[in-house]
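Board notes (copied after class):
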Amino acid sequence: MRLGITLMLVVAAALVAAAPAHAQRQSLADRVGSLEQQMYNNSSNQDLLNQINQLRQQVTSLQASIEQLQHDNAQLKQTAQDQYLDLDSRLNRLEGGSAAPALPAVPASAPKAPAAPAKPAAAATSERPPSVHGDPGSLAVTGDERTSYNVAFDALKAGKYDDSAQLFLSFLELYPNGVYAPNALYWLGESYYATRNFPMAESQFRELLSRYPTHDKAAGGLLKVGLSQYGEGKVDQAQQTLETVVAQYPGSDAARTAQDRLQSIRLGNQIR
């Protein structure tokens, strides 16, 4: 009997002694599992950080590319403007020199007339007399009107845009309906456009189109209305105006310039 009780006590003591060790093993396993979970989380966080850093680098690279494209686009715009002004000036110079009619051949027996003194070549910066299609009218120009016009035009060619604007305004006050009034309106608009005063430029070009819709400068005036609108930030209106230039004056220099600017605007819209 005593032996049985002793055995039971021994077994009970053994179970009591074994319980803490088991509990300790469970606690250690939990701690190991927790550490492993932390390590896994840290690894995941590191992967996320690496991905974020890569995305940041890509965004920075894209921003640099966009800024470069915007810079290139601005340079293209300025180049197009400069080329148009240069082309317009060259066309005026080319159109200004009208070819003299061929003289009939002088018979060999006829006495030769004394050679006339050579006339000085027309100035490279001269502008041809204006003309209005469908209204040949009287194109007689008084010396005073032409002289006043030349003074303003010379200031424009010299790049003195503020001065040329004032001079063209004065000219239009003196000769509001003069033969050179349409040209003066056009170049007044150019003077404002060159100084980036786009609202005033658009106003002058619109007045030209309103008063002289069939003038030689009408196509360029409508083109400059569109470019002035673009300079004012009216992109949608500018596109419509430029499309009108292409449709209304097909094959002209103004239409080609308008088409180039439309492509530039569309490219800029795609980049944004």
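Comment from the instructor: The two ends are 98 Å apart (CA to CA). The chain is about 75% helix and 0% strand.
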